[in-house]
Every structure is written in C-alpha cells, then in structure tokens.
C-alpha cells in the first residue's frame, strides 16, 4: 500500500493520461510516477511537446503512444485509471481548427470512455470553467448552468466540453463506468508554451523580452489563477476519492484578479520596462470568473495552497531560463 493525497491507495496502478504531453498533463504524469504508478501518455502533440516529457523519457514506468484521441485506441495491458486531458486549452489554439476541437471533445472523449469501460478503469474528464460561458452568477457554483453563446468562436471548446460532460453523466447514469468530471479554472505554471496565447504565458514572455504587454479590452475582466501543482493535487484527489461524487467538481483558486492587476503584478515582478498596450477584446470573452470551491473542499478536502505571487515567481523563473534572460531576484 502507498499513500495518495493522504488516502490509502494501491500503489502501482496502471494509468493512461491522454494529453499527457501538454502543460497540465505532463505535470500530472510526473506526479503519478512519483506516487509509484505506471503511466501511459497518449498524445497527438497538437499543442503538447516532447520537451515536456524529457524528464520522463527514460523512466521505467513511463510509456508514450502518439495518437489522436479521435481515433479509437487499443491498449493491450490492464488499465486502472484514464485521465482525459487531451484538448487544446488556449483560445487561439482551440479556435485554430474548431471542428477538430469539437470532435476531440465529443468523439475523442467517447473513445476514451469506451476504452476505460473495456478495462473497468475509472475515468476522469478535464472539463472547464468555460462551461459557465460569460457567467451571470458570481462566483460560479457547479449548480449554475452557464451562459454560453453556441454560435460564437469559443463554442467549439465551450460547447464541446459541455457535450463531453453530458456524455460523462449519461455514461454514469447508464451504469457503464465510474466517471468523474473536474471543472478546471485558469491554471498556470512552468511548461506553458511561450507562444500559447494565454494570459500568463503572454504577459511573462512579453515582460521578460521587454515587449509591450497586450491587455485585451480595458483589462477590467477578471480571472482566478491556480498554480499547476495545486490543480494536479485536485485532479488526483477527485480520481481517487472512494465515493464517486456523481457531480462535476470545480477546481481552481478563488483569488480573483483583473487583467490589469495581473499585468501590473508581472511588471513589478520582472522589473520590466514593457509598456501596456490595449488590443481589442476577443468575441465572447467572459467578463468575470471565480470558482466556488465549497464542493471540492467538502468532498475532497482540497483547496489550493500556492498564492498567485509565489506561483507567478516560479513561473517567471522558468520562462526566464527558457528564454535565456535574467530575472531580478525575488523577495527573500
Ligand atoms: P495543453 O494544450 O497544454 O495540453 C493539451 C494536450 O492535449 C496537448 O499535449 C495536446 O497535444 C493534446 N491533444 C490535444 N488534442 C488532442 C487530440 N485530439 N488527441 C490527442 N491529444 C490531443 O492544455 P492544458 O492547459 O494542459 O489543458 C489540459 C486539459 O485541461 C484540457 O483538456 C483543457 O481543456 C483542460 N483545462 C485546462 C485549463 C488551463 O487553464 N490550463 C483550464 C480549463 C480546462
Ligand atoms: N488576455 C489579455 N492579453 C493576452 C491574453 C489574454 O488581456 O495577451 C485576456 C483575455 O482577453 C481574457 C483573459 O486574459 O480576458 C484570460 O485569457 P486566456 O486566454 O488566458 O484564458 P480564457 O479567456 O480562456 O480564460
């Protein structure tokens, strides 16, 4: 027996991580291997990178399958857990091929659920705060049904993830398998792609290069930022909790910041001389977002530990190394 997140869990489980070469997925692979499990990463490398897997390449309990989840996969070894993180998460990336994003969410998720069922494996779906769209309720509790524009440019992702959730809960109601759904809020940390297009990577890379920091709209819109290690702990806790909650669970950091506040924090932390420039607000950009995490606290005993300042500092240090630039020393 070994301990997983404070719970007694069998060590040496066999775990498939779809999207394991991505930002969150690669940290999840690291954490699962560190707990003594066998990890199979399934990824098409659409937005992931071999670089993220570099530390794992020669790990004896790690293996890699390069494949799109829209194509059914056969795994000829036992599987105990399947995490589905395979889907681009950055708006420019998921909008680059919107039809493929939608098919990834629907047929890809369906394929992986079938795979999990064949193996009698638990399945965890990485859903998103985007299911709340541009929310009319604040903060967002899981009982809120959301406000999504089903014909806009974000719909491929938002509606795709909503459809995937519908699939998950129908699967569960039909008794076809043990399926869990995490609604993930904005997450950041080392291994975000520098050209990914999301706010934290954009701002840090721009600041470190001395380029203008691009604030979309007036910068009054808010987001809540969760450091990646906190999210990974939450995903594992949700997968391993003995009683399936049978409900979606928000995972995110309830601290709420405007885009302008984040820009100023990044400027102060990096000591950059970058100016702020305003760019048009993308269509359907949600105005406010903050998770209500009371369900995660109650069911999983989980809450994030890393404050934004600390997490940003660690992420800035990582990007500085990647870009080969100096970062002023952080606070003692
Ligand atoms: P990411 O883009 O870094 O990683 C996604 C990974 O999935 C990549 O390795 C990519 O190559 C792979 N992938 C994409 N489409 C695929 C397909 N059809 N078949 C096989 N592999 C495919 O994104 P991330 O930030 O690591 O997000 C991981 C998951 O978490 C996604 O499902 C995303 O929707 C969800 N999520 C993330 C955030 C966040 O802030 N990071 C927020 C909400 C939800
Ligand atoms: N954003 C910004 N400048 C950037 C990138 C993003 O002002 O260079 C804003 C974006 O308009 C949104 C917020 O930051 O309001 C978060 O954007 P991101 O793409 O990271 O995630 P999402 O919109 O999916 O929450």
Total number of strands: 15
**Compounds present?**
nicotinamide-adenine-dinucleotide, uridine-5'-diphosphate
Q: What percent strand?
A: 15-25%
Uncertain stretches: 1-9
Descriptive report:
- With 332 residues, the protein is of the alpha/beta class.
- The strands form five sheets. It has a seven-stranded parallel sheet with strand order 5-4-3-6-7-8-13, with helices on both faces. A two-stranded antiparallel ribbon has the order 1-2.
- Residues 1-9 have low confidence and may be disordered.
- It has helices at 23-34, 50-53, 91-96, 98-119, 155-173, 199-209, 228-240, 259-270, 294-300, 308-323, and strands spanning 2-4, 7-9, 14-18, 38-43, 62-66, 81-84, 122-128, 179-184, 187-188, 213-216, 222-223, 226-227, 249-251, 257-258, 276-279.
- The protein has ten helices and 15 strands.
- Helix 6 crosses helix 10 (308-323).
- The structure holds nicotinamide-adenine-dinucleotide and uridine-5'-diphosphate.
- Nicotinamide-adenine-dinucleotide (NAD) is lined by residues 19, 21-25, 43-48, 68-70, 85-89, 104, 108, 126, 128, 184, 186-187.
What is the topological layout?
Blueprint: E1 2-4, E2 7-9, E3 14-18, H1 23-34, E4 38-43, H2 50-53, E5 62-66, E6 81-84, H3 91-96, H4 98-119, E7 122-128, H5 155-173, E8 179-184, E9 187-188, H6 199-209, E10 213-216, E11 222-223, E12 226-227, H7 228-240, E13 249-251, E14 257-258, H8 259-270, E15 276-279, H9 294-300, H10 308-323
Parallel strand pairs: 3-4, 3-6, 4-5, 6-7, 7-8, 8-13, 9-12, 10-15
Antiparallel strand pairs: 1-2, 11-14
The chain binds nicotinamide-adenine-dinucleotide (NAD) and uridine-5'-diphosphate.
């Amino acid at each position: 027996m070994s301990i997983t997140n404070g719970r007694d869990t069998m060590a040496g489980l066999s775990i498939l991580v779809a999207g394991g070469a991505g930002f969150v997925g690669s940290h999840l692979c690291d954490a699962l291997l560190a707990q003594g499990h066998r990890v199979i990463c399934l990824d098409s490398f659409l937005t992931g990178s071999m670089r993220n897997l570099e530390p794992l390449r020669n790990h004896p309990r790690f293996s890699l399958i390069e494949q799109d989840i829209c194509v059914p996969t056969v795994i000829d070894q036992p599987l105990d857990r399947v995490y589905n993180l395979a889907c681009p998460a950055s708006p420019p990336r998921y909008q680059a091929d919107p039809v493929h994003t939608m098919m990834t969410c629907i047929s890809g998720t369906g394929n992986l659920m079938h795979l999990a069922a064949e193996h009698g494996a638990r399945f965890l779906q990485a859903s998103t705060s985007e299911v709340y769209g541009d929310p009319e309720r604040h903060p967002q509790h899981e009982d809120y049904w959301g406000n999504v524009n089903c014909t806009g440019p974000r719909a491929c992702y938002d509606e795709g993830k909503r459809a995937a959730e519908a699939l998950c809960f129908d699967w569960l109601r039909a008794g076809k398998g043990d399926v869990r759904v995490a609604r993930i809020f904005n997450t950041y940390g080392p291994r975000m792609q520098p050209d990914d297009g999301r706010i934290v990577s954009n701002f840090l890379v721009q600041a470190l290069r001395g380029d203008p920091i691009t604030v979309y709209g007036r910068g009054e819109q808010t987001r809540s930022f969760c450091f990646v290690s906190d999210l990974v702990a939450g995903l594992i806790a949700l997968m391993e909790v003995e009683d399936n909650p049978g409900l979606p669970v928000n995972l995110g950091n309830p601290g709420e910041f405007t885009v302008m506040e984040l820009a100023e924090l990044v400027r102060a932390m990096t000591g950059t001389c970058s100016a702020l420039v305003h760019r048009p607000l993308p269509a359907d950009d949600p105005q406010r977002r903050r998770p209500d995490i009371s369900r995660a606290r109650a069911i999983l005993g989980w809450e994030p530990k890393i404050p934004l300042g600390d997490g940003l500092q660690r992420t800035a240090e990582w990007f500085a190394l990647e870009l080969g630039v100096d970062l002023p020393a952080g606070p003692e």
